[in-house]
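Help needed: design a sequence for this.
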């Protein structure tokens, strides 16, 4: 047994590391902004216009956040009787990598649109996405988390 008992759920599946959960939340940042804007009724449209001045980027962010939201939801539904869910979640590492790379390319496109002008927001997003890609690609615990699903 490579991991401590608290790293496994009640069905014996290895839980996703906390950094993966935070990465999924970051990949679904448009959904977080959307929910926060919806929760603050009178200033919701103002929040959306500050964070996403172009509504197309909000809609694109919402679409790109769907895989992360689904993975977060399906991770809690895993059990031995739900083989089809386990098969979907087994692809979670690849789905996370693809989603992060697509968002990284979108951010690079934003930098291209402003002719390479430095922005702290774009720099931080690119740094976090690059870190997430490297972590998900290289981490043994992430690899084991998703590969343990197929071993049951």
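Sure. Designed sequence:
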């Amino acid at each position: 047994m490579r991991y401590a008992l608290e790293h496994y759920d009640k069905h014996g599946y290895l839980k996703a590391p906390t950094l993966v959960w935070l990465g999924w939340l970051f990949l679904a940042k448009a959904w977080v902004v959307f929910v926060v804007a919806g929760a603050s009724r009178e200033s919701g449209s103002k929040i959306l216009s500050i964070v996403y001045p172009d509504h197309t980027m909000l809609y694109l962010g919402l679409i790109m956040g769907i895989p992360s939201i689904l993975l977060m939801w399906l991770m809690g539904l895993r059990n031995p009787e739900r083989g089809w869910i386990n098969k979907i979640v087994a692809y979670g590492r690849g789905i996370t990598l693809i989603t992060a790379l697509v968002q990284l390319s979108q951010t690079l496109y934003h930098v291209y649109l402003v002719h390479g002008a430095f922005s702290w927001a774009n720099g931080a997003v690119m740094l976090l996405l690059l870190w997430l890609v490297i972590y998900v690609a290289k981490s043994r615990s992430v690899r084991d988390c998703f590969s343990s699903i197929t071993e049951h």
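The mean pLDDT is 90.
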